[in-house]
Records
---
Amino acid sequence: MTAQSRPELNRPESGPGSVAGIGVRIKAFVVDSILCILIALASGFRPGHAGYDLTVYGSFLLIELLFVSFAGQTPGMRFAGAAVTRFADAGRASFTWVLVRTLLLATVLPALVVDNSGRAMHDRAAGTIMVRTR
């Protein structure tokens, strides 16, 4: 074990495979949020319209579920250089666990509760981890 690794997580300290930090997570969230706003606007909804907020929220959750299930990352995560993998072996998480992760993410709070290893509550519950890809 070197000073460059995180033995408690079996992850490197930096670079590909390391735990994605708050900056990477925020960058991914902002890009995904902009995409969802564009979807709402393209659907004909404008801020203040009854369906705007629901369209943005629903789009965000649908993007999270589908892209993480099938590609391991949302467009925002790809832009930010991050992906979601299984914690145990770094493989792709199953649809069921991505669904659990997304439903917990829908409550917002779990994404804001991070432990000392850098994993958010929804990742811990789903057995996943957000890691850097570069």
---
Amino acid sequence: MRKYSQELIDKICQDYPHYYTKDIAAKYSLKISVIYNIATRHNLHKSPTHTARMLAATFKSLEESGRMHRFEKGQTAWNKGKHMRVSERTEFKKGNKPHNYRPVGSERVTKDGYLERKIADPSKWKPVHHLEWEKVNGPIPARHKVIFKTPDKLNVSIDNLLLVTFEEAMLRNTIHRYPTEIVKAIKSISKLKKTIRNYGKEQN
């Protein structure tokens, strides 16, 4: 990198906060990049007064350049009443469907591994294990969910489905961290509580 005299550097440091960089470069016959390098090395910044002057000049320039494109009061837009078409060849025709359209009845596997079926347009999908349960037992009760008896989420046969409460589902997810003996005990207690609840309902 070319070395400059300390006298020149001192003059540039004195001028930099108060003048445009391009004017300083022209004054000392240097490239703008040289002025910026010197300013960076000496941690120089434009003064608040000069910054305000630059912003005012920029605002004035934008205002003047934008005036020619500005709508005047009462002026009618050139495209008023016109039907704008980007491309007749590529636009959707009435009744056309997108390339990724899936008909009602289509199935897909979600990122969580659940099988879903499309039940209505335009894009209404429902878990297949819910549909299979409701086909046999009717709507899923409030605060209940249908879970799988086995880890296979794609086995949506009614024999692999089980209706549990939200609390029971949470308990199932929690007890997996306990030893096998404790898990069995917790499940037995839960089953006993459910039997008692059902017995009470029958008595009433």
---
Amino acid sequence: MNIKKILVFSVIALSFVACKNIPTMPEVKNLPTIISFYAIPSTIDKGQSTTLYWSTSNATTVSIDQGIGFVSTSGDWSVSPTTTTTYTLTAGNKDGTVNKSTAVTVKEVAVLVLDGEPVKRMTSYGCPQFTGYVKNTGPVTAYNAMIQFRAYSDVNRTTIIDTASGFPADLGDIGSGQRAYFEATFFKLNSWDQIKSWDYQITWLNKNMPPGMQRGITVGWGR
């Protein structure tokens, strides 16, 4: 075999070896993207609700743990955790899944409620008055509590004719599980016959909480 043939065979052999060693291109995966996942507000009082918001792209399935399950690819969901909770959103498609988490901090707070139906009476100076008790059903001590009543001239509660305020425990502490007495007087009225319906709300502060976290839950005007 002459030198030319040897060179040709050598080049072919080297080319074959080189081709065998060329790395194959990795498979390109097009994973979904979680654009955003957050809660507003991210800190709530125990007993309150917050809303989870999320947005994804290139996802065929989206789910959130903590019992929520499958959801739309973008949207919102109201939650009411009773303890500080981390929520994890999982977005998936044929190429795989991605995750993102967000936390909701739940503050332990006092919870003041009207303890039983308030008693209607007339004061010695001739004004309608509510007396009764509020109770702290939460684990934190409350203070500076106030209960307000609104009196209406109609059963549909469209016209307020007077308001009355009571201060349980004289604005002092109301510990967990404790009851506190109040009196609330309608000074502009002189008869219970003038009051066709009423509602109330309770406000307070939470003791031994950092500044900005002392505010209590306001029980909305209700009956």
---
Amino acid sequence: MLILIGRGKYVNKPKILIIDDDDFLIETIKSVLEQDYELLSAGTGEGIIDRLDSETPELIILDVNLPLIDGYEVCRTIKDSFDHDTIPVLFLSGINDLEHRIKGYEVGGEDYITKPFDGEELKAKIQTLIRHRQTTEQYKEKANGAMQQAMSVITSTGETAYVIDFLRESYHCDNLHSLADKVVNVCNEYGLNTLVRFSAEDYTIFKGTTGLGSPIEKSLFDHIPPHIHIHTFNKRCIFNYGITGILVKNMPLDDPDKCGRIRDNVAIIAEGANAAVKSILHTNILNNQQNHLKTLMEHDYKHLKLPTKRIVQIT
């Protein structure tokens, strides 16, 4: 229900559920609270969870003496519910002794008021409980936020370890095929479906999570401008670092934080792989030059003509 608060502005009235089998008492409570609250009522606590699922109140006023299921058991059911356990319960009873108050506290009740009640006392107790719930919810949200941040840091640390391990291992690769396998494997740790391309001057190799890639996937690398290192389209993302290209086919767009971390980590992997490719190619060139020089030296040695020794006999 909306109430006008001035200049055409409306706010929702807090909902209160009254559970009592005494219709006259319910009407009495409504007359005290109806100006400030939206009031719901029920004559029994049966099916309470279904009721709360459809209409979640800010507070429940609960009579202790109910037919079929007493108020204490109804309260216990509410507090055992994961979705509704934070709803404050204000017990209403004609019995005012320590034993019943303790019993109400043990089943999770937040406060206790006796019949006949004072209207101002009822209002004060309700306001206090609602404020307390709002404060509790705020702390709960902050705690959840802090926990999520902590888990994000832990997750991020684990993900960074994959990158560090890859960079360390990439330095020991002596050929492009084994390096490509390592790129695919580290991307698999993130749950990514990838296609890796290494493009040298005289040949190109492809390695992928599910094969060597389709012709159209392979062609994508040739249509990315050299100055663009990361290009995203839908769930696909290409990391372009010259000789090295990585196509990720399933970026987790539904989780922006994870998506951002993966984008950063795969970019580092691509840069590291690109440096490793250059090192491998340079090493191959040096080895080829050394082998060629060795072949030339062996060839020249075999065909080298040495001068014939002359033997002079002295008489």
